[in-house]
Every structure is written in C-alpha cells, then in structure tokens.
## 1
Amino acid sequence: MSELAERRCEPCKSGVPPLSASQTAPLLEQLDRDWRVIDGHHLSRVYRFQNFSTALDYVNAVGALAEE
C-alpha cells in the first residue's frame, strides 16, 4: 500500500492554504495518470462505464465507503 493510501483525510481549515504544485506532484505520482488537480486544490477524475446500472453500482459502493 502506498504512503498516500495509508493517510487519512483531514478537513480543510480556514486560513490554511492548499498544497503547492511542488507538494502535490509527489502525491499525484502515487495515483494513476487519470487524476488531475484543478484550481490548485481539487482532485478530479473521469470514470466511464458501459451502462447506467454499472455506474450506479459504483456510485453506491463509493458512497458506502464515504459514509464509513
């Protein structure tokens, strides 16, 4: 498991600036190439599915993980 995968998400706090490009670069290397940093602080990735049902199953699984 990568160092990034072992980290826990911490909510953004007021007055704390987002990571710089030089700080995000080594973290992005631990993800696959489809991930992008948008506006310096948002992660974005496009997922494509063969049909709506498969996409819905995926979203529900991610939602269950987020709820944990």
## 2
Amino acid sequence: MKFILDEPGGGYAIQHYANGKITVNGIIYRENLLVMPNQVIPQWRPASFDDLTPEDFVQLAKLGSEIVILGTGSKQRFPTPALTYPLFDARIGLEVMDTAAACRTFNILMSEGRQVAAALFTINP
C-alpha cells in the first residue's frame, strides 16, 4: 500500500508498506526497524512481537520521542504493561496498532512536526 509521494518534503517518511518490507525515502527495508523524523534504525533487535523485552522499551524511551507507535505486524497485539513500563516511567505515550496503520499514523504525526518514533515489525508475528 503506497502512502505518500516519492519525494518527501523533509525528514524520513514511510512511502510504502507490504508484509515483509517497508519503503522509507526510497530505501526498502525487509527487517524490523525504528523510524523517526530524523533517522532510521534498521535491524531493530526483537525478531518478533513475542521476543519483546523491557530492554527494547528502554531503548525506545531513549529515542527522545513524545510518542512511540508500535506496529505489531498484520494484526494488532498489545504488549503487557510490565514490558512497556520504561515508556510510562519516561512519560512517553504508546500507541499500538497493526504495522500498516502504524506507518500511516507515523506519517501524519511526523507531518505535524511531532516527535514520534515508529517501532515496526515487518513480518507477521
């Protein structure tokens, strides 16, 4: 599903998502990744949703975002509060949705100038 024009106005924007790959500023990623308005971090550590640990959320809390969008693959799945406590403790919002919705939401919030990070699983959980 294509989301935006091929020439983003500035920063990193998600242009396309299909199960197994995400296109950001013309580069295709086939692994889980973190996307922020000012950078992309490929090869985000958890191999799957079930592999998430509190340390992954500590890493997300250190990104300096006001909100984190967690894209959980083809289906929306919610992590336990014990996992997400590092975000709560840092007063960082968390929105959980399927990856397609997370990609769209990231682009909207980024275009509004929000400090947002998307943690995206590219493969079905």
## 3
Amino acid sequence: MNKFSSNEEHEKFLKEQCIFPLGFSCSVQPLSFFPQEKKLEKPFPMNLTLITLDNASDSFAGVFTSNAFPGHPVVLGKKLIKESLCQGIFINNKISNVCTKGGMEDSLTLQKSIEKELAAEGFILPSSTGIIGWKLPVDQMQAQ
C-alpha cells in the first residue's frame, strides 16, 4: 500500500500512472456554473472529459444501459455506434441529461461542436452522468 506525505505527492503519482496507449489523448476541464433548477450560493462544479483517438477508427464497441428510460446521450450513442468511424468520447459529470426538455438537442449540439472543433473524421460519443432532470449548461460547456 502506498503512503503519501501530501495530496500533491499523491496527485503526482496518479498522473504518472495514467498513461494512455499510443494514439489516444485525454483532456479534463473543470467548469463551474449555476444550475437553472436550484438556487445555489456557490457555483456547481462539473468536469468535462474528452478522450480522443489521433486517427478515427472503425474498431470500437459500446455497452449501454438497459434502463427503459435512458438518457439522451445513450439514445444518441446507440445511433452513432452504428456509424463507421469513432474519434472519441466526451463525458460530463454532475448532470445526467435524463428527462430534460431539449436534452437530445443539447447532446447533439455538444457532439457536433466538439467534432467541428477537432475537425474529427469520426463521431464523438456523448456520455453524461449525474443528477436526473437538470439541464446541461450547454453554452458554458461549449466555451470550454
């Protein structure tokens, strides 16, 4: 068992262990926002994670929930996975994008925005996890 003298030492260790295979890249961006659904005194934190392949690939697979009421990213992902080339996956935490008005449009907007920014040759698979019923802060997410 590893023991660390500080959080910084532990974080450094974790970063050294997190090495992606050749041809993959990862980016994590923090985002703070005020949700529409709840008044908060402090901004609500969220992480935006993008894992990409240097070159789009037709060698990919997906496992999706069997829930009868899947989130909008799951519904979109099931359609995208049938396409020929995958370029990566975009993950947000804190908000699941389930049971929200306009949630599918939000997923599509984010997906297309990332694909355009990357000049992607394949699709970017959306993924969300978190609170059900809250709307994604799409404008703030796109600004990141």
## 4
Amino acid sequence: MPYSSNDDLPDSIRRHLPVHAQSIFREAFNHAWETYRARADREAIARRVAWAAVKRGYEKIGRDWAPKA
C-alpha cells in the first residue's frame, strides 16, 4: 500500500525518523511498490528498499536517526 503523505506512515517510522528521512522512506517505498507490482512479496521488498534509501543519508544513534556527517 503506497503512502500519500508522511502522516500515513506507520507510527514507529514517524516516531523515530526525522521528517526528511520520512519523506525519503515514503518516496522510496512508493517507487518500489510500483516497480515490483507483479511480485507477491512486493510490500516486503518495498520496505527493504525504503530502509536502504534512508540508510544512505541517515544513521541510527540509539533509538533515533540523524543525518550522516
């Protein structure tokens, strides 16, 4: 299920990711959702793609995420 805005993201993502990282997650997820539409496991793939996109620009510090230096 694609997300139309950051407000539609799961609570766990909204609580721990900064707004910019939420947007990265949402955009990557939505793109992967469309790209892998023929796959039965497309939601799992879209989540992995979205987290990989976030990890390119952010790092986890404790329970929260911060931009990489």
